[in-house]
Amino acid sequence: QASLLKNDETKALAPASLQKELNNLLKFNPDFAEAHYLSYLNSIRVQDVFSSTHSLLHYFDRLILTGAESKSNGDEGYGRSLRYAALNLAALHCRFGHYQQAELALQEAIRIAQESNDHVCLQHCLSWLYILEQKIFDSCVLLEHSVNKSLHFGLP
């Protein structure tokens, strides 16, 4: 269903049906991180800011609590989840037009990424900063810097 929502939304279950199935799954296993992520995607589809924020935060909380993040990332532990949670929260707020909240979440993602010396996350933050600035101001400097850094790190 997540793949369908990302690639061809018309083939996915209807939003209400999908949410009903997810609620049943989460009733029996509230720590199922992937179900929270799918609920996040489904909530975005119906423009439900409260549910999408709730599901996104639960997804990253469950990822950290289950230890799945620390197993897959060696020394990083839950630090990677924290910075990407802040980055995704910024993107979510930007999508719903909450630019001040997006900026605060983005500042947090940048701070955590700088502490971890995560250049890829910082580059994603810079891209979102550019998008956010475009919503508020008109700035070409960030775009030029972002493109140069993306080329340097081999990012699209």
UniProtKB/TrEMBL annotation:
Q: Which InterPro entries match?
A: Apc5 (IPR037679), Apc5_dom (IPR026000)
Pfam families hit by this protein? ANAPC5
From its record, what is one biological process in GO terms? protein K11-linked ubiquitination
What keyword terms does UniProt attach to this protein?
Cell cycle, Cell division, Mitosis, Ubl conjugation pathway
**Segments forming domain Anaphase-promoting complex subunit:** 36-135
Can you list the GO cellular component terms from the UniProt entry?
anaphase-promoting complex
The highest taxon in the source lineage is Eukaryota
The entry's family comment says: Belongs to the APC5 family.
**PANTHER family to which the protein is assigned, alphabetical:** ANAPHASE-PROMOTING COMPLEX SUBUNIT 5
Q: What is the official name of this protein in its record?
A: Anaphase-promoting complex subunit 5
Origin organism is Melospiza melodia
